Amino acid sequence: MPGLRAPSDYTEEPPRDPALVINSKEPFNAEPRRSDLISSYVTPVEFFYKRNHGPIPVVDDIDKYSVSITGLIGTSKELFMKDIWKLPKYTVTATLQVYSHFLYQVVLVHMALLICL
Predict the structure, then answer these.
(1) In the structure, what pLDDT confidence band is assigned to residue 89 with cuts at 50, 70 and 90?
(2) Position 23 in a domain
(3) Which of 12, 15, 24, 63 could be disulfide-bonded to 29 (CB atoms 3.0-4.6 Å)?
(4) Cα–Cα distance for residue pair 11/67, rounded to 1 Å
(5) Closest to 57 (Cα-Cα) out of 16, 2, 15, 13
């Protein structure tokens, strides 16, 4: 992909907030402490959980980087970053959750139900 380089190792990883609890360094997997999560109704961006499955791609030239959109839209589109930056901006409050945490909670609920039976 023009403008994007996929490193073969973890030497070019971006900086992360030192307050994150690191579960795995390579690939990077980290999350905020619970005390940091409850300090604000909205989680600060630097405390978003991080879950990667390989090295972070390096953007060599942001002007050449593009995203292709295909599928149910009918006509395929290619958007460059300059196009994306021109799009309208919206603020959306959302809940993000790592699937494994959700699965863990489901297992706990099922175990609790079995104990109650």
Answers:
(1) very high
(2) yes
(3) 24
(4) 25
(5) 13
Residues 6+ apart with CB under 8 A from 20: 30, 31, 32, 47, 50
Answer whether 0.90 is exceeded by the pTM: no
The reply to whether 98 falls in a domain is: no
Quick one: how far is CA 63 from the chain centroid? 23
Check pLDDT > 70 for residue 105.
no
Total Cβ atoms within 10 A of residue 102? 10
> What is the domain range of residue 39?
4-90
The reply to whether 20 falls in a domain is yes
Task: Please state, rounded to an integer, the average pLDDT across all residues of the chain.
Answer: 83
Does residue 109 form part of some domain?
Answer: no
Domain count, the chain: 1
